[in-house]
């Protein structure tokens, strides 16, 4: 049996503007090049993220609540599975909005086109 995943070119229109707040974390290096839930290979240098329910391919703006820095990432994986966390980010995306030494940052996420 063969399966495939369709990744939309843009976020579904009915989700644009949807917001969530919580904690963001980032992937450990051991996940580099592993296959994500969408079928893509994970790349720490890409601006990607994991969300529990948003469709694969959805683009979200992630904003660090403390310093107001933002990054746009594409959802290509499932998670995080720890209470209070709303998104897992690639190391590259996380480092654009926060210090990786902190491990976690408070963020808002908003679905964008």
Automatic annotation (TrEMBL):
Every RlpA-like protein double-psi beta-barrel domain range: 20-109
Statement: the UniProt record of this protein carries the keyword Cell wall biogenesis/degradation: yes
BP-aspect Gene Ontology terms: cell wall organization; peptidoglycan metabolic process
Pfam families documented for this protein: DPBB_1
UniProt keyword annotations, A-Z: Cell wall biogenesis/degradation, Lyase
Entry GO MF terms: lytic endotransglycosylase activity
Key word Lyase present: yes
Record EC number: 4.2.2.-
Domain of life: Bacteria
Reported function: Lytic transglycosylase with a strong preference for naked glycan strands that lack stem peptides.
Family membership: Belongs to the RlpA family.
Protein name: Endolytic peptidoglycan transglycosylase RlpA
């Amino acid at each position: 049996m063969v399966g495939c995943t369709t990744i939309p070119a843009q976020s579904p229109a009915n989700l644009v503007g949807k917001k969530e707040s919580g904690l963001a974390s980032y992937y450990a290096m051991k996940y580099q090049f592993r296959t994500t839930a969408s079928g893509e290979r994970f790349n720490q240098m890409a601006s990607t993220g994991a969300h529990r329910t948003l469709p694969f391919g959805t683009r979200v703006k992630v904003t660090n609540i403390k310093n107001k820095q933002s990054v746009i990432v594409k959802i290509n994986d499932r998670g995080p599975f720890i209470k209070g966390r709303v998104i897992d980010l690639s190391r590259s995306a996380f480092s654009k909005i926060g210090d990786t030494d902190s491990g976690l940052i408070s963020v808002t996420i908003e679905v964008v086109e």
